[in-house]
Amino acid sequence: KEILEKYHDKSTVHWEGVIGNMHVPSQAEWEQLLTDCSAFLFYGMERFMSHLLLNRLVAMNISKCHLMILLDLVRSQQSYRRITNSDTHK
Questions:
Q1: CB contact at 8 A, 28 and 64
Q2: Per-residue three-class SS string for 17-39
Q3: How far, CA to CA in Å, does 68 sit from each of 15, 49, 64, 65, 81?
Q4: What's the CA gap between 17 and 22, in Å, rounded?
Q5: Rounded Cα–Cα distance for residues 28 and 32 (Å)
Q6: What local confidence, expressed as pLDDT, does residue 4 receive?
Q7: What one-character DSSP code corresponds to residue 89?
Q8: How many CB atoms within 10 Å of residue 30?
Q9: pLDDT (tens digit, 9 = 90+) per residue, 37-90?
């Protein structure tokens, strides 16, 4: 949040996304964010790919996204439980 507040007016016209404990984005919301962005930053406690279906990601047109930074696998007990439950159903 501090970074967004500091650089909001300097580097971009519009920041959009999900921050903190707002909610868990749906598959459709991830797809919308990825297809509409010029730069994408993921900083999460889980694997980035645990949030998306691989076949949907491969089929997406993300040509407008010129920069993608993925920082994942920051672990906590809560994230470990969510990944375990998600992997069980795949």
A1: no
A2: CCCCCCCCCCHHHHHHHHHHCCE
A3: 14, 14, 11, 7, 27
A4: 10
A5: 6
A6: 66
A7: T
A8: 20
A9: 888 888 887 788 888 888 888 898 888 888 888 888 877 777 778 878 888 877
Residue 46: other Cβ atoms inside 10 A: 19
Q: How many CB atoms lie within 10 A of CB 26?
A: 10
- Centre a 10 Å sphere on the Cβ of residue 1 and count the other Cβ atoms it contains: 7
Question: Residues 18, 43: contact at Cβ < 8 Å?
Answer: no
Angle at 1 between CA 20 and CA 65, to 5 degrees: 80
Q: What is the residue whose two structure tokens read 């406690």?
A: 45
